[in-house]
């Protein structure tokens, strides 16, 4: 089957199946049976063994539908690929097929209250206990944890070495009685994320991913997949939709209003064309790498700008309008999640422009002697 | 839509870049360099159709070249001649197209949207032109001036021999030291009406193409400014560290890089629209000037500022980029006019 045929087949299948159920697990099972789950994953672990081209073709067709696969996005985008890269065969055998079939949901447990941008300074401890490990600590900003069966958990296993060298990655059973999931109400008033507490949670050693104290290397793999899946989702930025809405809501005869709407158009077109150029380069085999961080930073800025402009243009009504109030409340999310704007600028500066890094005080000092989180 | 350069375009870029390497904008207009660009590299005929002796390439290729001449701040009439070639492709004239393609003749334009105050009187099929053009780019170096003239039947493009009788060229002191301007006064100057007027639509399209061509030059100015300051941030030391390691500098450079990425995307898009999708050209052209013109000045400005005190000296090249960026930003009219045109096209 060539790519066009593949794409047509996907189109036909989606038209027949996309709207048949709202049940995420049931839909994933259908997707798996039809061969559209794990398109690029090896056949041995339940995937289809196809290429990025087929995956993109399917994604392009799926764009027109609101598929109920959100709760699987962390597992499919980050945890599964990490196990493919760094897991043992036994772990791949046990975990990957149920993930692809929609039988098990995954979440990712890296960030902590004291470790956000600087995630390697995390304090959740895993202590060896016979054949297994015992975990205590707290994680935060965890999507879909309330649905999750398994979590990819980054812990500290050695405090006597520098911070990047004392971390270990595990797969944790989210149904363990020591795991408490609490919804985190964010500034929009909704709960998009959770905080997770670990009290003497036991993990068998066979659920360790990678070597002891090599967790940072594994996490880098996961974060690479995270960035790829975010940048793949970075689309048009939504500016065009807002422009259409605002031109109805405000007096475009006012030259100041006109100019502000033109500015919104210019910014959204500039970013949308940049995104399209990046994806054309990717298709031509030129991988954007850290340049994707520029697209993410620009999207964060455009999101803030758009919500700010929309509320200002509409005026007093905007603070009692549900959609506008939600937009201005949600606007900071893109500038914080997946790396803050400041971190993005560091990445662009150091990995795109190759500028020298900041001097670091935390690279050679044993973790226990660092000022970090609640450890003073 | 194509936003990535093909193999041939990349080769063209490499050829022009290596030709321009080592030239300093401080040397001023060097006729022998200009002649080699047109002759050896065949650039004056790049977008002129093959039937007139040109290479028949598109705006995409011209944009690649202008990005490089912009990055080098090439002095002289290269851009003016390219704009004239654009005007001539829209209002074709065999004699002038052939002469420009061969590099025998340098033309410039008075890029005035909607006509000028010039008036013509017709005598024996020849136009006699009167009026004053306050600023014409590279009029001092060019042989022929192309100017829109308003007539009873609409707008026409007139070619005027700048060395002929009735033409007075007065050089002006310009902000941009790398590109000259002159006042041109015409008193019964002999002109030739090109094409078959009225040519309002053709000149409208030419105007849009000017916007794209200028944006390509601005992209080059931006790129070179950013490269210069990134290079300096890696060698200049303050308080015991390279200045590029400070977030106060690094973050500004990252923002400048973001502007460059978006500017390049817009220039590629606008050039593609010019070549492949004429319906999209007016909006793409207005977008190109509205975004790239401003972004270019901001990047050139911040590149100068981040150099610190040395950036304010006459000896350093930073001010040359800063001044070119400002001169380019206003070359096709006050920046608000591009935004206004965009608003009109969006039916706001």
List keywords for this structure.
heterodimer; A: 376 residues; alpha+beta; Butyryl-Coa Dehydrogenase, subunit A, domain 1; Butyryl-CoA Dehydrogenase, subunit A, domain 2; Butyryl-CoA Dehydrogenase, subunit A, domain 3; 4-stranded mixed β-sheet; 4-stranded antiparallel β-sheet; 12 helices; B: 348 residues; 3 domains; 7-stranded mixed β-sheet; two-stranded antiparallel sheet; 10 helices; 49% helix; globular
Question: What does it look like?
Answer:
The complex is a heterodimer of chains A (376) and B (348). Chain A has 376 residues and is α+β, with helices and mostly antiparallel strands. Chain A is 45% helix and 14% strand. Chain A has twelve helices and eight strands. Chain A has helices at residues 3-17, 24-34, 52-62, 73-86, 89-100, 215-233, 239-249, 255-283, 292-314, 322-330, 332-336, 341-352, and strands at 106-109, 125-129, 132-142, 150-156, 167-173, 179-184, 193-204, 208-209. In chain A, the strands form two sheets. A four-stranded mixed beta sheet of chain A has the order 1-4-5-8. Chain A has a four-stranded antiparallel beta sheet with strand order 2-3-7-6, with no helix packed on it. The longest helix of chain A has 29 residues, at 255-283. The model of chain A is unreliable at 233-238 (pLDDT under 50). Chain B has three domains: 7-106, Acyl-CoA dehydrogenase/oxidase, N-terminal domain (Butyryl-Coa Dehydrogenase, subunit A, domain 1, Orthogonal Bundle); 108-197, Butyryl-CoA Dehydrogenase, subunit A, domain 2; 201-345, Butyryl-CoA Dehydrogenase, subunit A, domain 3, CATH 1.20.140. Chain B has ten helices and nine strands. Chain B has helices spanning 7-20, 31-38, 59-71, 78-90, 94-102, 200-233, 247-276, 281-306, 318-329, 335-345; strands spanning 107-109, 119-123, 126-137, 144-151, 154-161, 167-171, 181-193, 237-238, 241-242. In chain B, the strands form two sheets. In chain B, strands 1, 2, 3, 4, 5, 6 and 7 form a seven-stranded mixed beta sheet that branches. The A-B interface holds A 247, 252, 258-259, 261-263, 265-266, 269-271, 273-274, 276-277, 280-281, 284, 286, 291, 294-295, 297-298, 342, 344-346, 348-350, 352-359 and B 1-4, 230, 233-234, 241-242, 244-247, 249-251, 253-255, 257-258, 261-266, 268-269, 287, 290-291, 336, 339, 342-343, 346, 348.
